[in-house]
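At this stage, I wrote out one protein's amino acid sequence and its backbone structure tokens, and that material follows here:
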Amino acid sequence: MSFPRQVAAAFGCISIVSSYPLYTYGTIEIFHAAIVGAVLATVNVLLGYAAIEHSFNKSATVFLKVVIGGMGIRMFGLAGILVLLIKVAMLNVVALVGSMGIFYVVFLMLEVLYINKKVNLRQQ
């Protein structure tokens, strides 16, 4: 299964599992904040995927600069967006950060497994 499909499958599974508690116990504001957090994490992982695909067949130095540097840029960007969403849009902090954190951890695991798979395929 391709990486974007894995991301879509994980997004769907987490969304299905979390929909009941959000619907039952959450307010519309919490629901909106959770959706925004999920979308932020998804965009983040897809940007990471693009960086990996762009730099994978280049030298190890270029690959590390693009992937690690891109990770730093994405983290600062996410932090800035989070501050704006919390201070300006006044989204629910717990729902926003919680959903982004859950999706981020799952997507990070998928990303590490994807890089490992690509490295193993290259070595064969």
